[in-house]
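Aim 2, interim progress. The first record below pairs a target sequence with its structure tokens.
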Amino acid sequence: MTTLTDYATINGTSVPTSRMGLDPVRVFSIPSYDNSRTPEVSIPTEIGSSKSRVDSPCVLVSKLNPRIPRIWLVEDPDARTYCSPEFLQVVPKNADLQLRYLYYLMWANASAIERSVKGTTGSHQRVGRDDVLRLDVFVPPLPEQKAIATTLGALDDKIESNRRASNLERKLAIATLSVGPERIRVGRIASLSKGLSYKGAGLDDGSSAGAQPMLNLANFTTTGALKAAGMKYYTGDFRPKHRLATWDLVTANTDLTQQREILGRGLLVPPTLDGALHTHHTSKVQFFDHEELALVLWAQIQSPAFRERAKGFATGTTVTALPAEAILDFEISVPADLDRSLDRSRALIEHSWHLEAETARLVQTRDALLPELLSGRIRVLPEVPA
């Protein structure tokens, strides 16, 4: 074992937006990581604060709240590539450390990074530059590094392929259900039912007998997908009305930031979460009849028009809330050939769920291999050319 500082350094130069020029720039930010792991493309005049220039291939490691690991491989930065100053740019010092191996090395040390946090509250914990460089690491010969990175990379490539296909299927389902000649006010066919106002003492890491998965704000994304990594688990009391069923539509009635990107977003409950709970920061759309229109509403609350509506209805200066009428007074457009549109959209969404379930299994396999390979307990021999 050796320390990371023998093989890597941390770079980063702060650049104010006034020195970024006028052309679009690529920004690796914490919100873009959380939403899609795809960097934002922005006009510098629309960026609100200084960013760090990414001058060379690196691994980005989030300083902020490392209990939620955010580790990003940047292989092809150019002169217009930046990142949030909340990321550390970890860069190999020389050719003795392969970049992709460094990426997996950071993931293997995510728990060690979390243990080194500074700060007294969960919302203000940060890891320091020197804490990362002091990590104990296993660095085998370069051919073995490449073999390990190739093994784990094959799993990650399939995970990423599934993620992209699933996102495209959701987009197609949304497009299929987004327009139609008949308009119906949501409040005429449905009401909103808030989730469980839970007690902190009942929260669990999911390992206790009887712990129930509980959907919350961390599960919402800007794409209509469900982010499983944000799941809470609960062992306390609840009522039957707080349970969810497959295909239920759940909306976010609160946003913890003033960006309001999650406020009013919706997600559909997959079969893997049938019977799960949901928190009081979310609302289930309870249909009186025409339950099939849940898919139509889910598709149309992703639209730019509804996004502006939700932001306009938002109340609160720190934590923003969405009044029920923002959704209940909203009018959906029912597709002309509703049955056909629903059949097509259901098939797309079901297949996206299948891909996500497969991805979860691949992630389990990768995460089981990661500490074994990156500690040297399992060795991978490089391929010998025939």
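The second target in this work package is listed in the same format:
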Amino acid sequence: MKYRTLYFLLTQIFIFCCLSTFGQNYPVYNSYPTNLYLYNPAEAASEYATLFINHRRQWTGIEGAPQLSTVNFSTLLDQTRTGLGVKISSYKRGLLTTTDAQATFAYGIPVGKNDAFYFGLSGGLVSHSVDQSKITDPSDPAIANYLNNNIQPAASAGFVYKSTSGIHLGVILPQFIAQIPASNQLSASPSVNPFEQILFSVYYKKKTESRFVSRTVKGMRTRAKSAAGYAPLELYATYKLSAYQNSQFEVLAKVNLTQNFWVGAGYRQQYGFTASTGFAIKKFLLSYSFEPGSQPESGFSTGTHEIQLGLRFGEEKRLKRKAPVLRSALKASTPQQHSTRLQHSVSDPEKEEAMDQNKNAKKKFLVVIKVFSDFNQAELFKKKLIEQKFNAEIYYYAVDKKYYVHVLETLKSAEANEEVRNLKSYTKLKEAKVVIVQEK
């Protein structure tokens, strides 16, 4: 009986609050570290095209308790500065349901060599409905007025500065257009009031994908980029400044035990502590979070649960930056010998380690585009690269009897690795890699 009475009072509070003012409560999520677009429209310019489905159920076990379901998709258009996104959410509480649908346009501005500033703008509609089957007096003027004109425009905006240091700063305006109270719907019109709610965010999420490792394949040493990932520790903090409610801060830590499994813990003011975990397998992601607190009284419910599914499409997207000068496309200072089969000789692989100790050994770094078993095929591919203004050459390696078509030969490892990154980012030569050649 006590719970039923409390539920009745809460339902009346929900109705009163939502009929008097719309949109005053900004949605709360625990899964935003893996889906930053949930809060910030600027995050629509994400590195991968990703679809997320999120469901949050508050006060589990209580009939009519708040439930929030969200579907969102976002992506950066590869080699452009444009990001696109769409987000649809349904917020049910008691007899009321609010549906919000918005599309997002985001734009990135490169800052320096690797940093970037992004801004995003979302726009759409928000609608409200009442479950009239559970209303004892559907003719109530307040209900009738609420249903007569309950579709209104909605908009939000966001900014984020992303740094290769891993520290990212953001500002979000979640309610760009002020919602109209039900009592004024027939006489008022929506107004732009972006500063009624402001959300500040700072988070540390450092990429570790720039690391290169040495590998030996059939006696030939190569340099390859390790798998993409992030540092073991990620930290997130947000602060919400609201004209309607008390301001609220939140902190969260995410620990990547591996690149595919993580755990997290956080604290949200007025809600209490949260715990989360999740895993990723190839392009699939699943996360879960739990809030034991934020209840009217102890034992009121089994807590708040949130689950999120994610699916990634395609390869990593890159922000368009000013194209660098490609060393492999510069005019060669000496005539190229394009038809020579055997241009270099390499030592016996068994003696490779000993040669590393030899001060007179000469190490070269080749930027290899493709490897062939047949010389004629290698020659044809080389000519195609030359037509594209690349300084293509063929290197024959006697141990594996393969022909390595390369576009740059240098004595500096840094130059070779930088050229590989530039070729992958600004040309169609996505298979470029560094091969090390060592001679006496």
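Residues 2-313 form a domain with the Porin fold (CATH 2.40.160). This observation will shape the mutagenesis plan for the next reporting period.
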